[in-house]
Amino acid sequence: MAAESALGFPVIAVNEAQTKHLFDNRYGTGQSTLDGILRATNLLIAGRHVVVAGYGWVGKGIAARMAGHGALVAVVEVDPVRALEALMDGFTVMTVSQAAPWGDLFITATGNINVFRREHFALMRDGAVMANSGHFDAELDLPALREMAEGHVREVREHVLEYDLGGKRIHLIAEGRLVNLGAAEGHPAAVMDMSFANQALCAEYAANHHGDLENTVYDVPPAIDAEVARLKLAALGVALDPMTPEQEAYVRSWQHGT
Ligand SMILES: NC(=O)c1ccc[n+]([C@@H]2O[C@H](COP(=O)([O-])OP(=O)(O)OC[C@H]3O[C@@H](n4cnc5c(N)ncnc54)[C@H](O)[C@@H]3O)[C@@H](O)[C@H]2O)c1
Fold first, then answer.
1. pLDDT-based confidence at 58, cuts 50/70/90?
2. Ligand 1 binding pocket includes 19 (Cβ within 6 Å)
3. How far apart are the CA of 109 and the centre of ligand 1, in A?
4. From CA 133, how far away is CA 178, in angstroms rounded?
5. How far apart are CA 114 and CA 197, in angstroms?
6. The dihedral of CA 173, 175, 179, 184: what is its sign?
7. 91: exposed, middle or buried (C-beta count within 10 Å: 0-12, 13-18, 19+)?
């Protein structure tokens, strides 16, 4: 919108604050996605083949939590750097077509549409489970799934729909909406506090600087990010060492150690 001069007011991209996406997206969504899937299905995660679509901050959190519960995790990505990161974090990287017949549980976290589609549903195993923890319920091609089931859809547990594709059943949690909100309680307050602190401090910043701001997108001022981290550490009772004056001088110098 900024590029097309379509913004009617200045915007501060709170999601890009480190104290937002490193924690809310990664640890908040990682934990609450697992929570939603467990509440809805009571699946044993250990030993399962779990496919995570998207290895951004949300996907990283989900993959780590699933691996922590003993799952074999495969990642599907479109970005080569993120795919390489997933590989070197110890996950298998596959195409969606390779992952579809391999996976037991599929979780989308891309912010994109139709990541799993008709041709992938056709390859999935009987009993496969799908959940979305990304943006909207459009990450899975649900109209195609409904069409393939030809009306053979029933609720097998609260929040779990079973689509019968002629003998093969595919399970969908929370109607493909955000699984951590649909089948659990969303993120713990102890991580949302940082997201909301960023929003509140950025709103204050915008109010105080509105005369200087243009109708474009701004990063969260680094001082706000650092302040949120400082406050969170203080709330957790964690102390940090400041650098000594000697260390400060050393790391700022180009004459020593380079
Ligand atoms: N469930 C929640 O509570 C919650 C919380 C925070 C963010 N989100 C949402 O989760 C989504 C991801 O957030 P993020 O911070 O990880 O974003 P991100 O941009 O860091 O990561 C998204 C990743 O998905 C990949 N991707 C895009 N299209 C793809 C495709 N077709 N197949 C495979 N991978 C694909 C991108 O390359 C990228 O690496 C966003 O839509 C965000 O709004 C949800």
1. very high
2. no
3. 4
4. 5
5. 34
6. negative
7. buried
- Which mutation among 25, 29, 55 tests ligand 1's pocket best, with the greatest number of atoms within 8 A of CB? 25
Q: Is 50 helix (H, G, I), strand (E, B) or coil?
A: strand
Q: Give 2-20 pLDDT, tens digit per residue.
A: 999 999 999 999 999 999 9
Cα–Cα distance measured from residue 98 to residue 131, given in angstroms and rounded to the nearest whole number = 18
In order, the DSSP letters of 200-237 are HHHHHHHHHHTTT--SSEEEPPHHHHHHHHHHHHHHTT
The token pair that represents 12 in the structure block: 């501060």
Place of tokens 């990283």: 60
Residue 112, ligand 1, Cβ within 6 A:
yes
Tokens of 30: 């990682």
pLDDT of residue 258: 66
